[in-house]
Every structure is written in structure tokens, then in C-alpha cells.
């Protein structure tokens, strides 16, 4: 299961994080694709050239680099232009004031990220309403109390087992990485579906698609059932 580590500006000033991480990965026999490096937006404000090179080096070494707390400062867009990030974590401030203005900003951020080939995660998600909206605009991941508070490893494993949460394998992860960059922001009913040869299911749907389904639920159910019907 992938994990993330947070690096501050002080970490880069006091040591070589890449060397330390490489040594830990070799010692424990872990794949580099299992560790994501998170750097807060505020850490990028000093020694831009040095951190830009550090981000590049991490990615060249096989690690994903994520920008944490995107939108919390004043230079977020400039950082996207100057740094190579694999994913941005949308700051929880957008969830605290979950009004129409926040929704429009989130929609624009997700669309922009997809256009740049950058994945998205929303922080601070606590309600079903927030989750449904984020899914409708194509945000790929969420983080927050909606699923669980932070847990020790043992309690987390128990939660996964109790809720029947499926941990994606490497092949599935690569598939969803590609699918996640599809832009669903449209004023037309739009969905992204998966047909694996035996089952048909929806991966993402936008708000307009949900409205159409509510207008004619029986028709949509019939279409899905026909799609899932075994061939004779």
C-alpha cells in the first residue's frame, strides 16, 4: 500500500532527503512507487531554484511528488508553472466554507490540473455532499473524516477489513492513474464507465449526468442490466 511522507523546508536545509529516502527504501526492500513525497506550498517560497531541482531529482529517482495545501497561499498557480508535480492536494479551506464560490474554484482547479496532466486530491472532506460534488467534477481522491480520522497501522488494517475496502494492485493503480486525468467538467451529461468483459460500472459521473438519471431511473437501470447480462 502506498504511503506519503511530508517534507518541510527545514528538511531540505538540514539534510539530503533523497539520499536518506533511497537508503531507507533499499534497507527495507521497497519499491519507490510505493512512497509519495509531499511538499507544502509554504515550503516552496524560499530557495525556489534549489527546491525545483530537488523535486526534479525525486521524480527522476522514481518517486511521485505532491504539492500539499494547494490554494492556501498566494503563489499556487506560479508554483504549478515552475515545479513538476504529480498531484496537488486541494487545501481544506475549500471544505470549511463549502459554498458556491468554493465549488467554482474547486471545479476550475480540477479542470486546470487535468489539462496539465496533474492528479488531484481534496483535503478535509467530511460530508456525503462534499464527496458527491468532488466526484462529479472528477477529483480523484479525498482525504478527511468522511472515511476516518487518522489511525495507527493496526486500527487502519482493522477498518479496511471491516468495511471490505479493496486495496488496488499495481495494474489497477496504473489504470486509475490514466482514467483520473479524464476531464468530466461539462454542461452535458457525462460519465466514465468501466466494462471489464463481465461487469459494467460507473467510475465517474458529472452533475448533469446525475440529473438525467434522476429523470429516468428505470431507463438507466434497464441499460445497465442489459449491459451486465451474460451472453447466451
From TrEMBL:
InterPro entries: Cyclic-di-GMP_PDE-like (IPR050706), EAL_dom (IPR001633), EAL_sf (IPR035919)
Cited Pfam families: EAL
Molecular functions per Gene Ontology: cyclic-guanylate-specific phosphodiesterase activity
Domain EAL per the UniProt entry, residue ranges: 1-164
Name of the protein described by the UniProt record: EAL domain-containing protein
Organism expressing this protein natively: Lactobacillus delbrueckii
